[in-house]
Amino acid sequence: MPVGPGCTDCNLTDKAFCGTGSSDGLALTNGQASLRRFKPGETVLAEGRAPAFAGSLCSGFLRRVRVNRDGRRNLIEVMRPGDLLGVVESGPLDFAVEAVTEVDICVFDVADLHRRMHGNRTLRQHILAHLQVRQERQLQAIWLRGALTSRERILAFLLHATEFMPVEPQPDGGVIVTMVLTRRDWADLASTTQETICRLLGELSQDGLVMPDGPHRYRIADIAALAKLAGLDSNTLGPWTDHASRFAAE
């Protein structure tokens, strides 16, 4: 696959659409990748405006947020490396995309992308598959908010963080996860308050289940035990079951 500036060291060659190969017409960068970098807190795509560009998130994390009519901020989704943005949206956005951490985004030419989508069924299928994964994430988040208590939601998101945030498996089967989100974002996702999270983390630390390990780092001693506290069993845990087994085996 031809690569452009910034592609050589990209770690998304097996995830992003630009890495699916040029033989089937899915190489969106066309050998001319352009990286844009945003600092934490910067607005990447503005609410009420059409996307200024389309791209793939190469590194870092983004949040998709919407301000409700009453002025409250609603965090819709945490976007992670490999996610696309501005690809299918054409009109004014009803949400904003902000940088949680420093992020690098591989930018596509929007007009060229839309031409390819029109004439390339395989590309459309890949994009639809990507959107389906994103939708499943949001459905999972809706289920967690509706089915679990405030305490359970906090724990569920901490478990969820082990799927896509930096993790360090420990020899005893535990894991250290780095929470890249702010405490406010965590509270928004769990539909709770920052104070409730602080109290719960204090209780878990006293019980030896979740202990602080430096700024934004949490050591989970027993993922299965934490999942049980979160009200998640083997039928509802989904990917967390695989993570618990993987960490225990390493």
From TrEMBL:
InterPro entries: cNMP-bd_dom (IPR000595), cNMP-bd_dom_sf (IPR018490), HTH_CRP (IPR012318), RmlC-like_jellyroll (IPR014710), WH-like_DNA-bd_sf (IPR036388), WH_DNA-bd_sf (IPR036390)
Keywords assigned by UniProt, alphabetized: DNA-binding, Transcription, Transcription regulation
Residues annotated as transmembrane: none
Gene3D superfamilies membership: Jelly Rolls, Winged helix-like DNA-binding domain superfamily/Winged helix DNA-binding domain
GO MF entry, a single one: DNA binding
Entry keyword DNA-binding: yes
Example GO BP: regulation of DNA-templated transcription
Domain HTH crp-type: 148-224
The UniProt record lists the keyword Transcription regulation: yes
Protein name: Cyclic nucleotide-binding domain-containing protein
Organism of derivation: Antarctobacter heliothermus
Source organism phylogeny: Bacteria, Pseudomonadati, Pseudomonadota, Alphaproteobacteria, Rhodobacterales
